[in-house]
Amino acid sequence: MEKKKMRIRLKAFDNRLLDQSTKEIIELVQKTGVKISGPVPLPTKREIYTVLRSPHVNKKSREQFEIKVHKRIIDIIEPTARTVDSISKLSLPAGIEVEMTLG
């Protein structure tokens, strides 16, 4: 299962939880003795929703809510089978989306 590069993309709403999970992955991969590039922080996606507080009387009164999606990329250069196996067995906390690609 020797490939040139393995890319791990992490997404989460909570940046502290994301940084903690990134740190766990990096420590785990470094134990296998493989080179790592990253973590690279990607731009935060910010979505703002405006909602009417009252549809009848106070039409001009509104509330705003926002959702921020934080992203990180980790590149693993020349991963071994042991590295891929250890990453796939890693249990990350709820709220973290992980996407792994080989290529």
Structural descriptors:
103 residues; alpha+beta; 4 strands; 25% helix; 48% strand; elongated
Describe the 3D structure.
This protein is an alpha+beta fold and 103 residues long. Helices cover 25% and strands 48% of the residues. The chain has 2 helices and 4 strands. The chain has helices at 15-31, 81-89; strands at 5-12, 35-52, 62-77, 96-102. Strands 2-3-1-4 form a 4-stranded antiparallel beta sheet.
How many distinct beta strands? 4
Structural class: alpha+beta
Poorly predicted runs are: none
- In spatial order, strands of the major sheet run 2-3-1-4
Largest beta-sheet details: 4 strands, antiparallel
Give the mean pLDDT: 88
Please bin the fraction of helical residues: 25-40%
Beta content comes to over 45%
SS element count, helices: 2
Radius of gyration: 19 Å
Q: Could you state the order of secondary-structure elements as H and E?
A: EHEEHE
User: Globular, elongated, flat, extended or rod-shaped: what is the shape?
Assistant: elongated
Question: Distance between the terminal alpha carbons, to the nearest Å?
Answer: 11 Å
Blueprint (SSEs and pairs):
Blueprint: E1 5-12, H1 15-31, E2 35-52, E3 62-77, H2 81-89, E4 96-102
Antiparallel strand pairs: 1-3, 1-4, 2-3
